[in-house]
Amino acid sequence: MKKRKMILSVMLLLSITTGCAAGEAKALSDSKGRMSLSQQIAKCNSKESAIFVAENGIEKIFGANKYALAGDASYNQDSSIQPDGWFVQLYDEDWDYAVWITEDKNRIHFVRGGEAYPLEFISAQEMKEIIESEEILDSAKALVAEQLGDDREIRDAYFDNTEEGAPHNSVDVTLVMEDGHIYMLTFYKDGTLRSLLYLE
Fold first, then answer.
1. Could you say which residues form the signal peptide (predicted)?
2. What is the predicted pLDDT for the residue at 112?
């Protein structure tokens, strides 16, 4: 349990310092009978509802079995390190998950980490090869369109935070949808999804 808490603490620190992360996939247009992100956040008025949103997002984004997840949620207000809103910590046999459901901004952020996936340094040459292959970029597009079922047109898609000379331990991708809403995804070096942030 001590090691699990340490992993979650590292995930929290990395999320705050890098701005990387994850989003709720069902936040599409009302014309399709689905709630907007702001509507979902408004309904997160209890620990149970926050955990429900987190579990469903983790299942849809990462393919986890939501019935195998355990954990808790807490509400943060006026914290020096956490945004106002719900912070949900869940875990299963392989992964630790952290979910931020932010109250004053229309965003949901999902991050996961595990002992089998430590953050590894990505060399400049490795990053160059990753960008040139575009496999991770294509993977991000497919995840949003197919796995999350978002049929809006992707207006722009690009690798982010790829400055030469800067240290990197993840591959960041930004997708801008036709209505201006944004997905920001981060991947481990091998292409495994680490986090997803959805901004409405």
1. 1-21
2. 97
Distance CA 118, CA 68 (A): 22
Angle of the 135-142 helix axis to the 124-133 helix axis, nearest 10: 50
Q: Which residues of 6-29 are buried (b: 16+ CB within 10 A; e: fewer)?
A: ebbeebbebbeeeebbbbbbbbbe
Cβ atoms of 75 and 88 within 8 Å: the answer is no
Using DSSP, state whether 160 is helix, strand or coil.
Answer: strand
Nearest to 58 by CA among 160, 194, 191, 175: 194
Q: What residues contact residue 145 under an 8 Å CB cut-off, 6+ apart?
A: 151, 154
pLDDT tens-digit series, residues 103-120: 767 889 999 999 989 889
Domain map (residue ranges) of the chain: 2-199
Q: Where are the alpha helices (DSSP H) in the chain?
A: 2-18, 37-43, 47-62, 124-133, 135-142
Q: Are strands 182-187 and 154-160 parallel, antiparallel or unpaired?
A: unpaired
3-state SS assignment for residue 194: strand
2-50 pLDDT, tens digit each:
445 444 443 443 333 333 333 333 332 334 444 566 666 767 778 999 9
Percentage of the chain beyond pLDDT 70 is: 78
**E strand or H helix at 177:** strand 171-177
